[in-house]
Amino acid sequence: MQSLSETARGLKNVVLVVSIPASELSYTDKDEADQQRFKNMLDRLGKALLMSAEAETSEIIRRRLFEWDPRTVGQNGKVLLTRNAISVCSEYADWTADHRQQIPQWFSIDHARKTFESTYPFHPAVLSVFERKWQGMPRFQQTRGILRLLALWVSDAYHKGFKGAQEDPIIGLGSAPLEDPAFRAAVFEQLGEAKLEGALTTDICGKKESHAIRLDAEAVDTIKKARLHKKVATVIFFESNGGQTRNEASVPEIRLDIAEPELDIGNVETALEALTDACYYLTTERNQYRFRLKENLNKRFADRRANVKDEDIETRLQEEIQKVFPATEGVERVFFPDKSGQIPDRPVISFIIMSPDQSIQDAPGIEQIIETMTREYGKSARTYKSALIWVVAESAGPIRDEARKLIAWKDIDDEELNLDDAQTRQLDKNIKKARSALKETVWRTYKNVMLLGKDNKIHTIDLGLPTSSSAESMCKFILLTLRQTNDVEKDVSPRFLVRNWPPAFIEWSARSVRDAFFASPQFPRLLNAEAVKDTIARGVSEGHLAYVGKSPDGGYSPFVYKKPLDSLDVEISEDMFIIISEEAEKHVKPPELAKIIVAPSQTQLKPGAKQTFTVRGIDQLGRDIETKIVEWSATGGEIGHNGVFKAAEDEGNFIVSAKVGKISGAADVQISKEPKPRHPEPPDAQGKPQRLIWSGEVTPQKWMNFYTKVLTKFVKSGCLKLNVSIEASPKDGVADHQVEETKVALRELGLNDNVHTD
């Protein structure tokens, strides 16, 4: 070598080039000594040059790995790309330009196209990661090492593309064939150790159950097609295992390494989150990811999760559900009832939160159970069935799974473990995340509300996909939804009561008015039953209603109409009533004669006999009223102005008439020489009949008049007995809600509700 160098130095137009490897990893001690002697000798005669700078590495690699048409190599020795290759590089460069804020600042966006063209068919990140991080490792061979890895890589990509399994426009860092044992061995040789074999096959690939492979199989189509979990995990492996000072992968680096034209950048964070939750060797801290030799908390979590007891899940679920449905003004809550008797029958809106096991999907007969419990209260019929609002889960599976996760993380927290700071922060983060996930899952799961509709049938309202941000609590969110559908109201107007006045009532008790809002599905449910007081008070002040009580003489006392009335003065009881304005006006007008009753109404006289007739005046409300001058007349015989009638000699039936103004009344007189014998009266009756009996049909329109004009005369004596027979035959048939409302009304009156239909 010395002679050769001396000869070359003595000749013109002769250059002697000696190539020395940059890495000494393959040298023996003798080799190192030889190189040092050569170096000392050559340094005396020549000068050192770096034949392959970092900027030229990519060109050397692709010239060594691929066959190129000599015509496509320029004068500077660089490959001239095809039109298709340039188009691909442009698309990748455009993507980086569109996401310049999400990728590392060291990547030059202005020269992105040139960078992609210089490394084609590799993604720049493939070569960059070795230059940025791996070249600092003691055993890493920058050219030979990269060439060996990439040769295996290219071979794998070629075969996958040939078979049609994968066809990527550029060979990206995430597509590294870590599942190939030969490639994996070459990687570990460059790393200098194979201790990460377990982490790699457990979390990335190499086994069917590897976490990244499983996550891709379970992911949505866009992520599954892109194999995004495997790519992201592979990128983290390369970015976090080469550097001596920066042995982690940042989120911007991961985004750039995964970059491709059709990539939705948001899916990268989705994949990272899933990998963080699933992988056993992946650690994260402040958006920095790294695969480590030591198992993370996920492995311990998986073990704890498998051993969580069902009774612990049940307890945790009940606690969390009750937190999501806190106490709310105007609403009573009943949690997880098994029997109808556990649900109070009261005039107040009641949320019945069913057990997760009694869900729509897990209990097919839940609708029938709710139907039965709505109409029954223990062994009797329920009065306030419209007050019940049932909240039913869609399925128990999701919330049970989230409860199991939270319990597992809490169990780890309760153990005395020797955790480092990063693991402690991760544990705290996972507990908070699991607690939030359980809460949100309860919100999303309890999305079905069932209640009695206006047709007296159970209806289901789907709340959609509620979240904890939808309202302060689930109770308030449900109330807000039901107010939008007019199933729940804060208050109602007095005109609503007038429009929905029961046709059979003249007076409507204040208690019955309140109860109607919780017993009849025709009425909306009131958030506060006391709102009825305000409605009545406003109705009285505005002249739509009168607020009255009944006095012993059959009148009204008190009687408040068209006067200011404080809602605090309204009493919700069976003793206080409201009447509509038309009825109230009758009591406002002064009494006036409406009817004359002549007594006796029937009599028998002999010719020439006398009988005194009297007149009783009745006003418009059925009360006695003084009569003025009475004009008497008779069809036979004579009658004086004092009402004394004298029978004539002629026999027959005659009429005695009395008239006061335009109002008249009459009595029948039978004149006969031989009067028909009358039934003897008992000695203790003092000449009065013992019983009055009547049977007949009364039309619905005359029923209240029948009560006022006939029955009220005997109510005070306390000896009135009524036997009522009702037969209703509507043209459209009897609706279910009509039957139920009839039963409720009968029970409110203290009567049996034995109603039959056919």
How is the secondary structure organized here?
Elements: H1 2-9, H2 29-45, H3 54-65, H4 83-98, H5 112-119, H6 124-132, H7 144-163, H8 181-191, H9 197-203, H10 211-218, H11 221-226, H12 228-240, E1 249-250, H13 251-258, H14 266-278, E2 282-285, E3 288-291, H15 297-306, H16 310-324, E4 331-335, E5 349-353, H17 366-375, E6 376-377, E7 380-381, E8 388-392, H18 397-414, H19 421-445, E9 448-452, E10 458-462, H20 474-484, E11 488-489, H21 494-499, E12 508-509, H22 510-519, E13 525-526, H23 531-542, E14 545-550, E15 556-561, E16 576-580, H24 581-588, E17 593-599, E18 602-605, E19 610-612, E20 614-619, E21 624-625, E22 631-634, E23 638-639, E24 644-646, E25 652-660, E26 663-671, H25 703-715, H26 736-748
Parallel strand pairs: 4-5, 5-8, 11-13, 18-26
Antiparallel strand pairs: 1-3, 2-3, 6-7, 8-9, 9-10, 12-16, 14-15, 14-16, 17-20, 19-24, 20-21, 22-25, 23-24, 25-26
Explain how this protein is built.
By secondary structure, the protein is an alpha+beta fold. The chain has 26 helices and 26 strands. Mean pLDDT is 85; it is low at 679-685.
Low-pLDDT runs: 679-685
Q: Helical residue percent?
A: 40-55%
- Outline: rod-shaped
Helix run count: 26
The main pleated sheet reads as: 5 strands, mixed
Query: Which sequence of strands runs across the widest sheet?
Result: 4-5-8-9-10
Distance between the termini: 123 Å
